[in-house]
């Protein structure tokens, strides 16, 4: 289909591309980027990309023509009803279409030699995710996955703090009131997938035990509330709960450590470290003036927008700087574990043994898949 243009911007002739594979690396020119799917999440990609240094936001693609033209006008960029036309004009794209379309759209981008940041979860099934990971390698393209919480300043600080702590247990809670968005997947793929990725990163050891339970709201075809308990080879225990039916938005991870309790609040970008010290403050002659029963340290966190940091990292990788910190392989690990959790919660199964888990988590051993 012919690209529909917003305003009267002249559409560049297909720029001469160095090759049909992996464009845009190591150039001093701004990286040419587009966004495919400009619904809830894609709108934010467009906003941040339009302001990012060394980036030229070329255009936006969406099957919703009205939304596409309106948003493209806002950022003074081209609108494409057919995203394959946008691919001819860019080095890289952010893909924010519904999850069930990630595979088809992602594959078309990679086959066109365009670097891809695809929203989480990487795909709707493990087979689709594997084929995206393989295609990125075959076409020598960057494949980053939108596990945005890795770029949340509160998570970054939590990760730093825990490097010097002896972690016993982790507790992740991600809860939202009912919403009409993202109801084409269960709460595990929509919300819990974020914390699965973060907990795997924090625990730093293979999963050896797992159980999960879930419930659903009225008439919901998917699970809306799921809680999973994971045991790791290094003795760490984690509980991960995600909900679409809670009357308050909550996004927290607590780390119960031998010498502290660290609480990270991703919504409010806050970290507090609690330590139970008991100390008497006394005069020289031994009279107790007061007793200190606990300490709370508030950790400084930066106010960088996580999406800004995520997209900066993507552009840096496209320029040939690095491999993404959350590439296809990491996202696939999270998806494998999410799929087992979802299945267990649906089946109401008891603890999975180490052997069962090894089978369920596929060809990668647990040590390599989850360690
Ligand atoms: N990282 C995060 O925190 C986060 C938050 C929300 C959503 N997401 C993810 O982003 C993705 C999109 O979710 P959303 O809530 O923005 O959905 P949405 O329904 O609001 O937006 C999807 C957009 O894609 C467009 N679209 C559909 N088919 C298309 C096609 N073939 N070509 C071009 N455009 C097409 C739709 O018209 C719509 O505008 C999902 O994978 C979701 O999991 C991630």
UniProtKB/TrEMBL annotation:
Region Disordered, residue ranges: 1-26
Pfam families registered for this protein in UniProt: GFO_IDH_MocA, GFO_IDH_MocA_C3
Gene3D superfamilies: Dihydrodipicolinate Reductase, domain 2, NAD(P)-binding Rossmann-like Domain
Domain GFO/IDH/MocA-like oxidoreductase: 177-251
GO molecular function: nucleotide binding
InterPro entries in the record: Gfo/Idh/MocA-like_OxRdtase_N, Gfo/Idh/MocA_Oxidoreductases, GFO_IDH_MocA-like_dom, NAD(P)-bd_dom_sf
Every Gfo/Idh/MocA-like oxidoreductase N-terminal domain range: 31-147
Name by which UniProt lists this protein: Oxidoreductase
Organism for this UniProt entry: Leptolyngbya foveolarum
């Amino acid at each position: 289909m012919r690209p529909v243009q917003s305003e009267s911007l002249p559409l560049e002739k297909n720029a001469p591309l160095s090759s049909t594979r992996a464009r845009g690396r190591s150039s001093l020119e701004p990286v040419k980027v587009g966004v495919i799917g400009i619904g809830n999440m894609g709108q934010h990609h467009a906003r941040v990309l339009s302001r990012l240094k060394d980036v030229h936001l070329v255009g936006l693609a969406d099957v919703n023509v009205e939304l596409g033209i309106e948003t493209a006008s806002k950022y003074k960029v081209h609108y494409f009803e057919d995203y394959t036309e946008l691919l001819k004009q860019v080095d890289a794209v952010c893909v924010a279409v519904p999850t069930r379309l990630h595979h088809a759209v992602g594959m078309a981008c990679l086959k066109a030699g365009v670097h891809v940041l695809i929203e989480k979860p990487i795909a709707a099934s493990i087979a689709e995710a594997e084929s995206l990971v393989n295609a990125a390698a075959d076409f020598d393209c960057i494949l980053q996955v939108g596990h945005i919480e890795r770029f949340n300043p509160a998570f970054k600080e939590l990760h730093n703090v825990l490097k010097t702590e002896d972690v016993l247990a982790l507790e992740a809670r991600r809860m939202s009131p009912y919403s009409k968005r993202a109801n084409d997947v269960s709460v595990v793929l929509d919300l819990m997938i974020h914390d699965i990725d973060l907990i795997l990163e924090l625990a730093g050891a293979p999963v050896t035990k797992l159980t999960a339970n879930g419930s659903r709201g009225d008439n919901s075809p998917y699970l809306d509330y799921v809680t999973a308990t994971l045991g790791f080879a290094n003795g760490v225990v984690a509980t991960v709960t995600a909900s679409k039916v809670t009357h308050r938005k909550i996004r927290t991870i607590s780390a119960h450590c031998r010498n502290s309790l660290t609480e990270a609040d991703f919504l409010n970008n806050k970290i507090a470290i609690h330590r139970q010290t008991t100390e008497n403050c006394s005069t020289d002659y031994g009279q107790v003036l007061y007793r200190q029963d606990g300490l709370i340290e508030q950790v400084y966190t930066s106010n960088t927008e996580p999406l800004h940091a995520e997209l900066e990292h993507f552009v840096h990788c496209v320029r040939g700087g690095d491999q993404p910190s959350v590439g296809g392989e990491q996202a696939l690990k999270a998806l494998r574990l999410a799929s087992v959790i979802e299945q267990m919660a649906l089946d109401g199964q008891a603890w999975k043994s180490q052997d069962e888990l090894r089978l369920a988590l596929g060809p990668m051993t647990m040590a390599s898949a989850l360690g």
